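Moderator note: this is an archived Q&A kept for reference. The question asked for a predicted structure of one protein chain; the sequence and the answer are reproduced below.
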Amino acid sequence: MKKNKLPISCDIRGDIVRIISSMLDNPDKYGIYPTSKCYKELEDYIIEIRTQDRKKFEERMLDNLDIFHEANKLKMGDVLGFTHKRKHFVIKRDE
């Protein structure tokens, strides 16, 4: 069964190509490619991307949590207008 793959942005693909190309363009005097250096660069790059994505996710979740707490203080009729102004999602309460 095939797993769904997320599309890779052009920026990320370009950075991967740059790292791999650097390795392939710089073999040592015996023709051995510096794979360890390449792997380290790729690992550092992946960690950087994951850290940036995690920070963005955390910021969105904190913002949504703030909206939820603020919306709980409002009457149900005001919730729709409040969330629409914030241009986020609509919070529905079961009351």
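Archived answer notes: The mean pLDDT is 76.
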